[in-house]
Amino acid sequence: MRCSGWSLLCSTRPLLNFSCISFSRFFSACAASNHECPFRVLGLTPDASAAELRLRYLQLAKQLHPDASPLPFGGSRASDFVEIRRAYEKAKQLQQQQQQQQQVRSTDSAQKPGSTAPAAAPQQPHTSPQEMKTRRQWEEQQRERARFWADAERDKNQTNTVGGKDASPYQQEILRRFQNKVEEEQRKREKEKGKNTQQTVDAATIEREIAAHEEATVKAWKEFKEEMRAFGFNTTDSSSSSSSSSSSSSSSAEAKYKRRGTDVYGYKMWISREGSNKQKMRKLKLKIERYGLEAAAAAALAVGAAAIVKHYKREKEKRKETEKGAVYNKQPHA
């Protein structure tokens, strides 16, 4: 970048000596031209960094601001401040354009196959830490870009045969992962199919068990009625004279027995408690539950059903008298 035109500040010395220069004398000596180098106006070289440019602008703006140090004879430094501002904006714009051009050139060179990473820009003196960090990140990105294109060119030249077709190592890796995924999905489907089959088998087994249980319940109920008839007891409702009521009572008792048939042995002793046979059936049930069906049948045949009913009736009366006495003792007496 070349700078032309009259420079307001000819020296690039630090600003320690810049304060002694008469700004009004320099700015009044010549007007700022649009073609004048903005870096020379600010007292910098064209290769100055962005941090140096901003620092110099802030220093000059503090010194030339009209409110900071007005002229002693009523003059104004507004024009000088405006000129500094314009020079700073123009210099910053030139720096941005230069950076964009460098990025475009580096991108074009990196996109060519087999190209190497561009050489890093030379270190500028007095660079800020942030600028150094940005530059290192940019250089790393360029190296990664170069490695990517180099690997792509190598994979393009090194081809192998997979499934009768030419494929690069990258394609081989993709094919291998795809096949593994397909096998995994197939194993998962087979596992789910096995679970469904097992559930179907379990459901069929449960249905068979339920059917066998119901069949055993009906059979046990029939055997129980036959045993009760052998003892001389009626398993139907004796208070009902009609045959229809007797059959309905028997069917309801059988339905209730089936409904409670989860425990075949426990509910096998259930009988109808209606009519005159209610107390007899209950006592006989207790006897059967205590000694078992076979023992109860043998006892009934030996002693007789009438003696058993009489014995349990006396026991019931004694128990009622005991309960009445206990209730009477619990009540308060005057």
TrEMBL record:
Residues 93-103, 115-130, 238-252 have a biased composition (Low complexity). SMART domains: DnaJ. Residues 92-202, 233-257, 313-334 are annotated as: Disordered. Keywords: Membrane, Transmembrane, Transmembrane helix. Gene3D superfamilies: DnaJ domain. Residues 104-114 have a biased composition (Polar residues). It comes from the Eukaryota. The chain crosses the membrane at residues 291-309. InterPro entries: DnaJ_domain, J_dom_sf. Residues 37-105 form the J domain. Residues 132-157, 174-195, 314-324 have a biased composition (Basic and acidic residues). This is J domain-containing protein. It comes from Eimeria mitis.
